[in-house]
Design goal:
The protein is α+β, with helices and mostly antiparallel strands and about 325 residues long. Helices cover about 25% and strands about 25% of the residues.
Length: about 325
Amino acid sequence: MSAATPVPDRVRFEGVRGRISHDAPLAPFTWFRVGGPADILFQPADTDDLAQFLRQLDPAVPVTVIGVGSNLLVRDGGIRGVVVRLSARGFGKAEVDGARIRAGAALPDKRLAAVAAEHGLGGFAFFHGIPGTVGGALRMNAGASGAETADIFVAAEGVSRAGDLVTLDRDAMGFSYRHTTAPADVIFTAGTFEGHPASATDIESAMAAVADHREQAQPIRDKTGGSTFTNPPGARAWELIDAAGCRGLKVGDAMVSEKHCNFLINCGEASAHDLEALGETVRARVLATSGVKLTWEIRRVGAFAGEPVREFGP
């Protein structure tokens, strides 16, 4: 953070009940287990606490939101400003009302699928295969097994950068493949979804199929970050990567998974720089062999610790 930008301090925040940590390590919060620290890490107690904090935070201080870090690459230089991480204690509840479920943004997607199953609601099984949280699913229209968040979406709740409580309907979310046009400064705090009555047998079968696919096809026991690139129209990213000869490709201790080559793996001591450089090498090779420019699905945030990774193309 530049000297002109004030660094928040706990004594300046009246009534804030959440935890504020300075120079906080972020690698333990990501599945890749890499990345530098946050200038400030704020873990709010609840929605009102988050709003109170943001209302008092200098507008010049940047805010970054992270979840469980399953689809996140924090660069080695860390993140300037404030990082907000919602905890399960304040944002991890699920409330069922008929066919609708209101879920906190920190609720794991897999747990949302389980809650739906417990109440005989179909339409949620695909969440069983997404290793993130409801907040991330809302932000990127997460999906799996041919279904996506938009299919069962009713409304989203959040807090704006100014500390105002907001509710977004389907039009405001602007869903598309692995993307929404929801305001970037809104921190999602909860989402409401609607399923349909279904038999326990059908729900269990759907969830088992999702789990089996993940187990067989994805390197879920490695330090990875989920799908690296979105599927281009009419194609599958992994097939393009495989055809470009990138299966098993390495940069430092970062490797393209042998099991599913749209996954990058930290084999032990990879840096964020290694992982991002590997991803850009993959993008270059895929363009050279297929003419397709892959788009990152993994969210890359923060500052480089040294020489930046040269991003390939748009």
